[in-house]
Amino acid sequence: MKINPATDMLGVVDVQPTFMPGGELPVPDGDTVVPTVNRLLRHFPSAFATQDWHPPGHSSFASAHPGHAPGDMIEMDYGPQILWPDHAIQNSAGASLHPALDQSRISLIIRKGFHPGIDSYSAFRENDHRCSTGLAGWLRARSVERLFLCGLAADFCVAWSAEDAIAAGFETIVIEDATRAIAMPLPGGGDSAERARARLAALGVRFLQTNHLES
After folding, report:
1. How many CB atoms lie within 10 A of CB 13?
2. Can you give the residue ranges of the Isochorismatase-like domain (predicted)?
3. pTM of the entire structure?
């Protein structure tokens, strides 16, 4: 697939040490995406990145809910919420973009999850589905029509971003070898990675490998 620099954009989702081995919420092999993402960035004149950016005591943390543990599901005002270990704390080393990530072509960084009472997976809006990040308007102002997504985690922040990108009218492609998934086991069988991929495919999201792209 040939990249059109006038209408294509790469989105780099949450490539942060907090989501990598040794971090607070490690995605298996999460660190291995960094060199692949850097190779992808060379195909695009401009890209955006997202950064999970939680205040201490965020409502999505299990530690904020006595008697609960990471992985528990609770009901928030905006719907079901998985509880996570404390992670991506603002101004911590784990919350920074990975130091080996090439940021020379990243022209926008969106910090999400900074509202204490609302979690945020998608690059486009908070989990309440009302608070917008403004990304859709930023992309349209740059005549973007097709969005390529990579990063962490494939079954949460990448998947929710892809879902919202489709809803916003962008052709959306997930670069599979530049993502890694948590693959959380789910009731009824299967895991979060399988469910997310099936959901996105049904919406029209395409899945490619980096070697399918050319600039």
Report:
1. 34
2. 12-182
3. 0.96
- What are phi and psi for residue 158, nearest 5 degrees? -65, -45
CB 49 within 8 A of CB 178: no
Active site amino acids: 14, 112, 157
Identity of residue 103: Q
Please, what are the averages of pLDDT over each run of 10 residues along the chain (215 residues)?
Answer: 96 98 97 97 96 98 97 93 97 98 97 96 95 96 98 97 98 98 87 94 97 88
E-assigned strand segments in the chain:
8-13, 47-52, 73-76, 79-82, 106-112, 146-152, 171-180, 206-208
